[in-house]
Amino acid sequence: MRTKVALIAHDRRKPEMIALCRDYQEMLAQEELVATKGTGGLIEELTGLHVTRVNSGEKGGDLQIGSMIASDQIKAVVFLRDPLTAHPHEPDINAVLKICDINDVPLATNISTARLVLAHLKDLQDIEEPPAT
To answer: What is this protein for, i.e. what is its function (predicted)?
Structure first.
């Protein structure tokens, strides 16, 4: 059963990830979040959201998240990548992209698509738990 939302960001995109998490903080607080070590640590520190952290990208954290995708544990991935200046120590999008496509898991690689994916998850939360009247 897909339960988690995965969050990964290259170094230059971490500030955007933090802003995104703040914008969707109420919705994300209702989700089980998993992130690579650096991204997850910043999210926890700067937003107060609880994040399960896997290894850093350079130590295979992206592959750990890929394994969760393959095991049907991830319902969406936000991977804010830096297509122009990604460094060798940063997570690789290719393996995550491939496993998301194989398993039909939404993958946002830029802020605009991330907002669409998170807005959809919020809509699903509203359907599952309608507001009290």
So the answer is: Catalyzes the formation of methylglyoxal from dihydroxyacetone phosphate.
Question: pTM, whole model, 2 decimals?
Answer: 0.89
Domain architecture of the chain: domains with CATH: 4-128 (3.40.50.1380)
Per residue in 58-81, pLDDT (tens digit) is: 788 989 999 999 999 999 999 998
Which residues are designated catalytic? 62
Cα 57 from chain centroid?
A: 13
Residue 57 annotated in ligand binding: yes
- Residue 120 annotated as binding site: no
Alpha-carbon gap, residue 34 to 69, rounded angstroms: 11
**What is the C-alpha to C-alpha distance for residues 112 and 90, in angstroms, rounded to an integer?**
21
